Structures are given as C-alpha cells and as structure tokens.
C-alpha cells in the first residue's frame, strides 16, 4: 500500500487533509525557557520563519504532518546551520528514501537515498513506535486491509455507475449463438445502453429476443452502509478525526455535544501527538535553553462573547491588565501612563498571611488598650 493508493480513499484524503491543515496554520512561538513563571517571549529564528527556503512554512508543516500520518515518521536533512551551529534549514525528505538500522557497533546508521549520512545532519521524528524500534509504525501498511477495503468499495461504486457492475437483466434468444455472435450481441447492447448518458433508453428487440430483468434490492446488499462504515472506521479509528470534519453528519458522535467540545477533543486527542513531537524536536534544534511550541491559543479560543466574559473575570480577578487583553485580541496597547499595564486588586482580597497578621495586630491592640488606665474625668 503506497501513499498514492491510500490517498485515493476519500476518508484517508479527508482525514489527513484536516489534520495537515490544522497544524500548518498554527504559528510558532519561541520562549526563553519552558518555565512559565520565568520565561520571556523571543523573536523567531530563521528556522522557525522558513524551515526550508524552497517551500513556505505552511508547506513544510504540511509535509511533516502528511509523512507522520501516512508513514508514521518524518525525516529531514539539516542542510544549513547558523554561526552558533544551530540548524537554520531543514529539507523534508521522502520517507521511502530514508532508512535507519543499527550498525555493527550498535549505533543508529541513517541512509538517505541509499547513502550513509552523518547523524548530526538527520532530523528524525517518530509517530507511534514499539520498544527497541528506530522507526515509527507505518499506519497504511499495518492497516492496509481496512484501507484497501475502502478503496475497493470506491472502485466498485465507480464501476457500478459507469458499467452497471450488477447486471439488471438478461438477453434471451431462441436460437443458439456461437461465441462471436454472443460477444457481438453484448457489445451492441452495451453500445446502446451502457453509461450514465444512455441509461434508461428504450430497447428495441427483434427476432424473438427477450429481455428478462433481474431484481436486486439495494438495501439487502448494504453497499452504502458498508461504505459509510469504512469511512467512519478510517477517520475515527486510524486518524481520530471527528466525523463532522470529513462530512459524516448523519450519525451521533461521542466526541462531544457541540462543535466546540468536538474541536477541543480533536486538539487534545488528535493533534496533541503531532504537535508535541514537533515541539520537542524544534526545542532540541533551538538555541540552548530556549523553548519552541506551536501556539494553539487561536485554535482553542472561544467566540467573542466567551472571550470577553473571560477577560472580564481576569480583569476583576487581578491577573489581566488592559494591555494583556488587547494583545490577546491583536489590538494595539494602551500607553503605560494611561493605565495600560495596571492590574486591579479585588475588593476584600488579601493574602491569608496578611489576614492572620491583621487579627493578631487587632488582638495586640486590644490587649494594650486594656492595660492603659482610663483618664477621662467623666468616668
């Protein structure tokens, strides 16, 4: 089973396309450290802006995702490094042109286009893999029977519409026909009635010829149900794509009760593996200590009402400033002198240590007042 054969199946093409589009449209972020309390956002490196000069960043991420989905691995060749020896250009490689095995010394040995390549030029990411394996599992090979079944169903459907794969009747003649006469009769009938454009044309029968129709109940064959099952199995079990994303909208789903919940399930359960593997690999290729990730905030953000409600809670709770909110909405900041960086302190909100200290101070003041003699003449 090749990529080309697998991609001829609608469910495969649709599922892989949905995953690739979702990842390719995510922006990269570079941070000084992975520690959220200490990190600062840094400018993108040349590698993150354009991983390979011959294609766009989106094309590079698309090729990464397609390779991971269909082959369970992604190979890239590091063809350029910056002055600090960090990768600045990574050329995507065709997965079938790359291989890895252990050499006589027990170390991984990579070959690109049949030639051994130094490991410091290899950018390798695996999808699902078994213990001890140097490569990821190839899904279209392991699951070739399920994918090929769907492919054959598509071919049968095309043949059914084009050639009427299921005969709708039998031509009956009184005389015996030899092989040439039988073939000539069949060809003559097909020439007049085969194909969508000639379907249901009236038949003119002469010489005692009869046409005996064959009745077939489409429901008994369960052909459509079988095709729908194959599509849902491929999208749901192999690629873990919500059915509505590839046009399956005629059945209920356990992905969630609404589009938003299904979207979050898709991000968590489907994209997480591809994004996590890429984040880890790009962080290793980044300058020492830096942390790189694909930003999912835009993908997970709610509608305008939900966002504004969350901003109001964050502002009232004291952890969001006006400029933080404006940045999340891609709006220009308010000058600092106008309060753009100010944080509110919720009324009645004090640290627990301060609350206990206030109680102790109150007790001490009361005790001191009790010791002080009353000098008021009225008393």
Description:
The longest helix is centred in the last third of the chain and has 27 residues, at 259-285. The chain has helices at residues 3-7, 10-24, 46-49, 57-71, 139-142, 144-163, 179-193, 218-221, 223-238, 259-285, 297-300, 304-317, 322-328, 352-371, and strands at 28-31, 41-42, 73-81, 87-93, 98-102, 108-112, 115-117, 122-126, 169-172, 210-213, 291-294. The strands form 4 sheets. A 3-stranded antiparallel beta sheet has the order 2-1-11. A 3-stranded antiparallel beta sheet has the order 4-3-8. The protein is elongated, with a radius of gyration of 34 Å. It is built from 14 helices and 11 strands. By secondary structure, the protein is α+β, with helices and mostly antiparallel strands. The relative contact order is 0.11.
Strand content: 5-15%
Rounded mean pLDDT is 82
Structural class: alpha+beta
Order of helices and strands: HHEEHHEEEEEEHHEHEHHHEHHHH
Total strand segments: 11
Distance between the termini: 104 Å
Low-pLDDT residue intervals, each spanning 5 or more residues: none
Q: Approximately how much helix is present in the residues?
A: 40-55%
Number of helices: 14
- Major sheet: order of its strands? 2-1-11
Q: What composes the largest sheet? A: 3 strands, antiparallel
């Amino acid at each position: 089973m090749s990529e080309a054969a697998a991609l001829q199946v609608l469910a495969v093409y649709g599922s892989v396309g949905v995953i690739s589009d979702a990842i390719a449209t995510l922006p990269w972020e570079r941070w000084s450290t992975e520690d959220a309390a200490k990190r600062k956002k840094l400018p993108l490196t040349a590698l993150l802006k354009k991983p390979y000069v011959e294609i766009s960043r989106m094309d590079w991420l698309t090729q990464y995702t397609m390779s991971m989905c269909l082959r369970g691995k992604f190979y890239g060749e590091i063809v350029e490094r910056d002055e600090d020896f960090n990768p600045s250009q990574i050329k995507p490689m065709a997965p079938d042109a790359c291989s890895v095995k252990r050499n006589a010394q027990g170390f991984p040995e990579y070959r690109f286009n049949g030639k051994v390549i130094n490991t410091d030029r290899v950018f390798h990411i695996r999808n699902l893999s078994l213990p001890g394996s140097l490569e990821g599992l190839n899904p279209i090979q392991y699951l070739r029977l399920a994918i090929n079944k769907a492919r054959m169903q598509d071919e049968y459907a095309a043949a059914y519409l084009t050639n009427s794969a299921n005969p709708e009747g039998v031509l009956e003649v009184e005389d015996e026909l030899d092989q040439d006469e039988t073939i000539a009769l069949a060809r003559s009938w097909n020439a007049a009635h085969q194909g969508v454009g000639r379907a249901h044309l009236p038949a003119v029968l002469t010489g005692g010829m009869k046409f005996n129709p064959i009745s077939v109940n489409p429901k008994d064959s369960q052909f459509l149900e079988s095709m729908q099952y194959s599509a849902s199995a491929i999208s749901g079990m192999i690629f873990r794509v919500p059915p509505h994303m590839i046009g399956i909208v005629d059945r209920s789903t356990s992905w969630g009760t609404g589009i938003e919940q299904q979207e979050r399930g898709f991000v968590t359960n489907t994209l997480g593996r591809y994004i996590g593997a890429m984040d880890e690999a790009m962080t290793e290729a980044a300058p020492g200590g830096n942390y790189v990730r694909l930003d999912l905030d835009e993908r997970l953000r709610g509608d305008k009402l939900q966002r504004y409600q969350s901003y109001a809670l964050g502002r009232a709770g004291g952890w969001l400033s006006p400029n933080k909110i404006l940045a999340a909405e891609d709006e220009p900041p308010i000058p600092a002198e106008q309060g753009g960086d100010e944080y509110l302190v919720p009324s009645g909100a004090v640290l627990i240590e301060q609350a206990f200290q206030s109680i102790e101070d109150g007790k001490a003041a009361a005790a001191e007042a009790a010791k002080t003699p009353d000098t008021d003449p009225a008393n």
